[in-house]
Design a protein that fits this description.
- It is a single chain.
- Helices cover about 30% and strands about 30% of the residues.
- The strands form 5 sheets. Strands 1-2-6-3-7-18 form a 6-stranded mixed β-sheet, with helices on both faces. Strands 11-12-14-9-15 form a 5-stranded antiparallel β-sheet.
- Helix 1 crosses helix 3, helix 5 runs antiparallel to helix 6 and helix 7 crosses helix 9.
Length: about 350
């Protein structure tokens, strides 16, 4: 196996994070990557109608026709413009004014370094999704007819020794209450408060961690325009998640019923948009995608462990479309904050493990 060139990895990673891609404005970075992969020998790139990018790399020193996919998302959270990576004592950070964008550009740089280093591999598809941070919308809208692989790895977790094998169903509820406006001092009796309707609903919802499998949350509430007006419009963004798909649907039904009942109680109107963002999945410990990852990590002295999470990754949508997908850790920490960092020895470890995977599949 070729030695991983961490200086080259750092150059690649630094180039990636300097191209801004705050979600949903990630098209500039997608275009950059299209040119980046297009410079590689015999690599073909294709974009789907949503703007996701797929790079198709031919087999190397292998007669295998069965491809494997590696995926990372292009977009980042804010503040992600003007990133200045700083390397110190084996850790990459920023100057503290921005995120690092290791989530998920570390994963993407690790995939690229794996491609440089592997002495042999089957056909590989690198899938770069858009708008993951907004709700996995890239993988939700991916044109799966462009993907040949039936096995994939998403690079989008923290610890390389942990293999994510399951995730939740996630349901988003966008709720809009419409009341009747009136002057709050002169004629409050003529109005119907949309905020009161929303408040009644929120007070009755079961929120937080409901059990080991299930969570529910109200993330935002926006309503009213002036202090002395009975508010006509109030909007709520809520969600629920569960590792059991049917249980998640029942909880969403319960939440919808509460939103409707509170509107009825005060005489307001309510409009509810319900969106299934991704579906619960669970991989067997004996599935090929898990076994290959475990064996690769063991070769580097790591005792791998599997985990199921209540967070969302692109793996949920990949699995829903028949692509057996596990999630690997990249070595990042403190994501979605200006304290974000990347631990280089962990980035090197997962890159080596991916090389082992593709060379075994060759």
């Amino acid at each position: 196996m070729s030695k991983v060139d961490m200086d080259r990895f750092l150059r690649t990673f630094s180039e990636f994070v300097k191209v801004p891609s705050e979600s949903p404005n990630d098209q500039e970075f997608i275009s950059y990557l299209e040119k980046f992969f297009g410079k590689m020998k015999d690599v073909k790139t294709v974009k789907d109608s949503y703007g996701n990018l797929i790079a198709k790399i031919p087999a190397k020193n292998s007669s295998s026709k069965i491809s494997v996919a590696f995926a990372a998302h292009a977009d980042t959270v804010s503040p992600g413009v003007g990133i200045k990576p700083i390397v110190e004592n084996g850790i990459v950070r920023t100057d503290g004014t921005t995120i690092l964008a290791a989530d998920d550009k570390a994963g993407l740089a690790e995939i690229v370094e794996m491609l440089y280093c592997a002495e042999k591999h089957p056909p590989i598809e690198v899938i770069i999704t858009r708008c993951e941070e907004l709700g996995d919308f890239g993988s939700l809208n991916l044109d799966y007819s462009l993907v040949d692989s039936k096995m994939a790895y998403v690079l989008d977790m923290e610890y390389p020794e942990k293999i994510t094998v399951g995730g939740p169903t996630s349901i988003a509820l966008d709720v809009h209450y419409k009341g009747v406006p009136a002057h709050a001092g002169m004629a409050p009796e003529k109005g119907i408060s949309s905020i009161v309707a929303a408040s009644k609903a929120i007070s009755k919802l079961r929120l937080g961690k409901l059990d080991e499998d299930t969570t529910a949350n109200v993330g935002t509430i926006q309503g009213g325009e002036v202090r002395n007006g009975v508010p006509e419009h109030t909007k709520i963004l809520a969600e629920c998640r569960c590792l059991n798909h049917d249980k998640a649907q029942k909880l969403a039904d319960e939440m919808v019923a509460i939103f409707k009942q509170s509107a009825k109680e005060v005489g307001a109107e309510v409009m509810i948009e319900r969106k299934d963002l991704y579906k619960a999945y669970s991989l067997s410990e004996t599935s090929d995608v898990v076994k290959h990852a475990k064996e690769a990590l063991k070769k580097h002295g790591v005792t791998p462990a599997t985990e199921v999470i209540r967070g969302g990754t692109d793996a949920a949508n990949f699995n829903a479309h028949g692509i057996q997908t596990a999630v690997l850790g990249t070595g990042f920490r403190d994501i979605h904050s200006c304290k974000e960092m990347l631990i280089l020895k962990e980035a090197e470890l997962i890159t080596k493990a991916m090389i082992n995977i593709v060379e075994e599949l060759a």
